[in-house]
Amino acid sequence: MSSQGAPRKRGRDNGRMQPPLARRTETIQPFRVVDVMEAAWAAERAGRSIVHLEVGEPDFGTPAPVVEAATKAIADGRVRYTSSLGLPELREAISGYYADRFGIDVPGWPPRSTATTSSCWPTPATPATAT
User: Fold this and answer.
1) What's residue 95's pLDDT?
2) Rounded to an integer, what distance in angstroms lies between the CA atom of residue 77 and that of residue 11?
3) Which tens digit of pLDDT belongs to each residue from 75-109?
C-alpha cells in the first residue's frame, strides 16, 4: 500500500509497461515523517500557520554565495561522490575556521576529529554556511 492507503499499481502505468513489483513491497511501511510533513502542508493549505519542524528543512532560501558556488561546482564537473569523511579541502577549511574563530586545533587532515556529513554538499562555500 502507498502512504495514502491505496494499493500499489502493477502492470501498465501511463501507457508504458512497468515491471511488476515483488508482493513483499506491499508490506513496506511509509516513512512516518513524510506523513507528518504532508499533514502539515495540508493544514497550511487550509490556512493554518505552521512551523515546520518535521524534517529539519530551513525556512529560508539558500544563500546566494552557496547557490553560486554550487552552480560553479556543477559547471566545473565536480559532481562525483566524495570520501565518506568529506573533502580534505573542506575539512581543512573547517579546521581553519575553528582555529581562527575559537583558537582551537581541530585537525582537518589526516582525518581524526573533523568529518562532514553526507547531507552537506561539498562546495567551496560550505564552510561559510557553518557560521
Assistant:
1) 86
2) 38
3) 999 888 887 777 888 888 888 898 899 998 887 76
Q: Is the pLDDT of residue 129 over 70?
A: no
19: which 3 cell numbers? 515491471
Closest listed residue to residue 36, CA positions, set 49, 52, 47, 60: 52
Instruction: Give the per-residue pLDDT at 24.
Output: 87
Q: Which residue has the cell 568529518?
A: 115
**Residue reference for cell 513491497:** 25
For residue 16, the 8-state DSSP code is E
For the chain, give every domain's residue range.
Answer: 1-6+18-59, 78-130
Return d(Cα 115, Cα 24) in angstroms, integer: 37
Cell 573542506 belongs to 90
Distance (Å) of CA 50 to CA 24, 59, 61: 36, 11, 17
